[in-house]
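ZP: hey, is the magnesium ion complex queued? I don't see it on the tracker
AM: it wasn't, my bad. submitting now with these inputs:
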Amino acid sequence: MELLRTENVTKSYDSRVIIRDINIHLLQGELVSLLGLSGSGKTTLFQVISGLVTPDSGNVFLNDKNITGEPGNISYMLQKDLLLEHKKVIDNVSLPLVLRGISRKDARKQAQPYFEQFGLEGTEEKYPSQLSGGMRQRAALLRTYLCSCPVALLDEPFSALDMITKGQMHTWYLDVINKIRLSTLLITHDIEEAILLSDRIYVMTGVPGEIHNEIHIEKRRNERTDFNLTPEFLDYKEQILDILKQ
Ligand SMILES: Nc1ncnc2c1ncn2[C@@H]1O[C@H](COP(=O)(O)OP(=O)(O)O)[C@@H](O)[C@H]1O
Ligand SMILES: [Mg+2]
């Protein structure tokens, strides 16, 4: 079932076209990556999809409803985790519930059971500055998840992490996504991350940014964590590198 769709989205800033004629879609339960070099307009596209920015032309549909320029339908995790340093982790995470009008006490109660699943047990009463980089990202992901929006947009959620932590986060994320089946659009400039995590990859290239290719990654979900050791993985990597080098 198709959940999200953009139709011919074009956006300029100061009469410079940043992204042109973007047509992408996301099916229920899918994880789709938007892969491109920095400056190719990925974040701009996310801002349009989230409704924070109105495109020059084109539309965004969620469950066939036109949501172009209408914020609040989709949860959006920004490139920086944006945890509020003066709030405890439990209050950071339960913020989306409070914003929906649930009392702080009830919001905490609803958020608490997820701490274990997100590898955050014991951090409830801590402040963000007391967490490691990986934990901060997990807290930001949990907050995104608790928005209970049908689609999550994640803008380079793992890019600031060191290689080892990043690898651990990938394994963890694949496991958690299998359980919660969140439909996700993920921005990344990391080819291996895109291949490892995605069902499909849109490769964005050029100035203005356009979708150059759509690549289906064939793998069974439960095989995913060892997938980067297979010949198929290297084939995908070579294919994408060729596209980006053009
Ligand atoms: N609000 C804005 N005003 C003017 N230019 C912008 C704005 N936002 C993004 N841009 C420009 O759009 C281009 C694409 O940026 P961005 O969408 O952040 O790319 P990416 O996320 O792929 O790195 C950049 O050249 C950037 O300077
Ligand atoms: Mg960006």
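AM: back. The first strand starts at residue 2 and ends at 13.
ZP: great, adding it to the tracker
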